[in-house]
Amino acid sequence: MIITSKDNEQIKHIRKLKDKKFRDKQGEFFVEGMKLVREAIDEKADIRTIVICDECAETGRFEPKDLYEIAKHNCLYVSEKVFNHICDVQNPQGILAVIGKMQNTKKIEYNEDLIVILDGVQDPGNMGTILRTLDSVGLSQVIVSDICVDVYNPKVVRATMGAVFRINIIESEDLTETIKDLKKNKIEIVVTALDTNKSIYDVEYKKMAIIIGNEVNGVSPELVKLADKKAKIPMFGRTESLNAAVAASVVLYEYVRQKVTKSSSKETK
Amino acid sequence: MIITSKDNEQIKHIRKLKDKKFRDKQGEFFVEGMKLVREAIDEKADIRTIVICDECAETGRFEPKDLYEIAKHNCLYVSEKVFNHICDVQNPQGILAVIGKMQNTKKIEYNEDLIVILDGVQDPGNMGTILRTLDSVGLSQVIVSDICVDVYNPKVVRATMGAVFRINIIESEDLTETIKDLKKNKIEIVVTALDTNKSIYDVEYKKMAIIIGNEVNGVSPELVKLADKKAKIPMFGRTESLNAAVAASVVLYEYVRQKVTKSSSKETK
């Protein structure tokens, strides 16, 4: 059966998942496009429903091996009009999956040398790109405050390129408390700031947490007060600032550099 | 006089500047929003016309000191309907400036320790962000091939945050020839690639040029062949790749790190 009405209850349910409150209440979100649906399958995410645009499936847009995997799930065939009504992108690819939120624990893994805390990252593209980079540098977790954009926002999910399935996303309701806990566990708290002579290249990335702030206002003053160290990203041009995802990635890649350089100097010994 | 008709010849001219061919022919482009107009004024760009949405000006959206600067230029007051017809953004800020393209020379400055070559960067946001980072690390030039997105595309210009006014953009019609010229001038050519054991942290950033490739296909094979060295950005997670602007920025910031570390070790001596 092909659903052709926007008033279908299941369609109304899925469309409402664009809204954070409804996502929180249902513990569900959705991902769009074959690449992300494939990632969800590969990562064994809790796929509740896969919605397929009937016209797209008919024109052979999907590969047989993907369709075979998809068919193992609860599928909903809908008309193109209905599909476009649900989805969030300008050029829909004709497939989306409704997924139960990851069973992220609230427990922080203290054994990673770098813990990343996001305090008020607002732009969905930046948030998604930061999660993507986090995954690329081999970190398994991130702490986000409740003033950040929701990580299950469709635009964020898209920009993560699948990293959302792999990272333990710890949603902190009170960053001050979380940071105090980190300090009790002997984690050094570093913030990026401009009013310091120290650069990120002077910091030893070991048992440390770094706070990355809002695109415009940076890290909240009350968190800056709790920090053990400030470090800046050196800048030489007349451009006032870096894109937030770029700044975060530069900070994260210094972690990679120290790790790679250390292990190669060990090899030489 | 307030222009209220979309058929006004000046309005039709400005709107056509969304099209690359027309931009090339006229040697003009436009920037939107007060921040970029202010940058254009500060950088003494060749401002031909400033277009102001009359309703926006009336509601006091602009600051008096900005209006004073703006009034020194050739101004065009238009109705909100006409303004929205011209401009490129979803939430227009009610001001844009038509600017003569920068008098970029085709001459490469060989004395910079790092020369960046962009080969087929396609996404406007990525292109703009890369130019913004280039400016932040203190580089004065970039070489772009003609298969890159046009740097004067309104979306690119917006993402540069003004860096477009400050960087010498060298448009190469034949990258192969350009690279041969660089080699004649004793510049070492490095490409980012995955099929190598060397990382960017093994490369000494000195008299070198780095080629950054297309988002999906990387650097063109014929240019890879011309390279003296391959280097990879280390990756540890299951995410296949970095965002292109992030990858470029990680490469560029290793230049900063080497510069900063060198100068501080000199100071210690």
Low-confidence stretches of chain A: none
Overall pLDDT level of chain A: 91
**DSSP strand count of chain A:** 11
State the oligomer. Answer: homodimer
- What count of helical segments of chain A does DSSP give? 11
> Given the C-alpha coordinates, what overall shape of chain A results?
elongated
Beta percentage of chain A is: 15-25%
Cα radius of gyration of chain A in angstroms? 21 Å
**What string gives the helices and strands of chain A in order?**
EHHEHEHHEHEEHEHEHEEHEH
Largest binding interface between chains: A-B, 38 and 38 residues
Biggest sheet character of chain A: 6 strands, parallel
Largest beta sheet of chain A: what is the strand line-up?
A: 8-7-6-10-9-11
* Span between termini of chain A: 67 Å
Give the % helix of chain A.
25-40%
Structural class of chain A: alpha/beta
Q: Can you give a write-up of this model?
A:
Two copies of one chain form a homodimer. The first copy, chain A, has eleven helices and eleven strands. By secondary structure, the first copy, chain A, is α/β, with parallel strands linked by helices. In chain A, the strands form two sheets. The first copy, chain A, has a six-stranded parallel sheet with strand order 8-7-6-10-9-11. A five-stranded mixed sheet of chain A has the order 1-4-3-5-2. In chain A, α7 links the parallel β6 and β7. In chain A, α7 packs parallel to α8 and α7 packs parallel to α11. The longest helix of chain A is centred in the C-terminal third of the chain and has 25 residues. The radius of gyration of chain A is 21 Å and the shape is elongated. The N and C termini of chain A lie far apart (67 Å). The relative contact order of chain A is 0.13. Chains A and B meet through α7 and α11 of A and α7 and α11 of B.
